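Pasting as-is:
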Amino acid sequence: MKLLTVNFLTCAVKNCKSSAASFPLHFEDAELEQREIDYNPTFLSNILPRLDWDAITTTAVEVCQLRSPSSECSEEYSKWACQLGFTSLPTIKPEGSFETEDEQKVLRDLHTLLMETEVIEGNIVCHNCGHEYRIKEGIANFLLPNHLAAPTPHPDALLAQPSSLDKTDATQCCERKKHTANVIVMSVI
C-alpha cells in the first residue's frame, strides 16, 4: 500500500464519519519497503493540490517512528525508516512551478515518500474509534464487521418509504421490468 493512498482514506466506521480524528489514519506495526519507480514530476505537481498537507507531514513523521517487527534488524531498519521519514518536509504545502533546485528536491522527496514507500504488512488505525485495518501483502482490508458498518436498507423498506412516486407508478415500473425480463427470456429461447 503506497503512502499516497492514506492521504485519501478516512475511517469507514459509521460513528467516525463526522469526526475530524478519523483522518488521517495512522500506521502501527508496519513493515515498510521501498520500490523504485520512475520519477514523474508532472504527476506530483498535479496531485499536490489534492493532498492534505497536514496529513502528509503527520504520516512522514510517523514513518520515521516505525520500528521493524524483528528485533535483530530493528536498529538498521530504524535508520532506514528515518531516512524515509522526511522530517525535513516543509511545514507549508509547496506551490508553484517547481523550477528551482530546492523545489525539485521537495518533489523528489515527495516522490520517494508517496510513490516509492509502501507498507507491506501492518495496520492502519483510526485515532477516533481505534479500529484497525489490517494490511497484508501490501493490500489493506477495509471490510467492516456488520456491527460497525452503516446499515444498508432492504429494498422492500425503500418501497415502503414515502416518495414522489405514488404506489401505482412504482407498481407500473415493476411490471415494465418484469415484462422486459420476460421478453429477453423469450427471445433467448
